[in-house]
Amino acid sequence: MQKFPYRDLRPGNILTPAYRHVLLLLYWPVYGFFFLFVERIYKVDGYFPMWCPLDDKIPFCEYFFIPYMFWFVYLIGMLAYTFFCDTDAFSRMMWFIIICDTTAIIIYLIFPTCQELRPVDFPRDNALTSLVRAFYSFDTNTNVFPSIHVLNTVAVMAPSWHMKRFRTVGWQLAFNVTGVLIILSTLFLRQHSVLDIAGALAICVPAYFICFRYKKSGAAER
Predict the structure, then answer these.
(1) Helix 148-162 to helix 87-110 angle, to the nearest 10 degrees?
(2) DSSP secondary structure code for residue 50 in this structure
């Protein structure tokens, strides 16, 4: 595990092995621009609705709003920890995200999708359903296949499987149970179809082998 010697970072040494992982952060503004483009600017005449019979078996449950929003803490927390404490794991995680999220953006451009699963009337009226209602008004129901939520949840789980710091039973339970709850939340909040989850996991499998298994040596494997 190689920690980030941030106190010695200078413009002249940014390309050295100890610091070049910092350059991977440049992906986020690029990704943000293209995500904003496909969500708010790039419009098509028709979106393909994602649906399968299993979707109708899944009830709406507002309590899954908690793990759904915790995704932001889950992702940013792991990025911050690996950035400072395990630069090899950070680099692997970022390349996993770059492969998966870029693939998703390309799919959104060539195969525009939407979901029509959100309930018109909520089965209960409470604080969480009010939050979900507000979230629905902000978040579009387009560009759902594959699910970014699922792609980046696996991006957090994958390095935890290889980092010595998180190999204890407690940490593995924490990462994996949280990850599964986040993935399930996309279904129970009616944000995604089962097809969106399956598509995301199909992208994650090759990305995992490229980023975490192909290169055998390194801090993330020790």
Answers:
(1) 160
(2) P
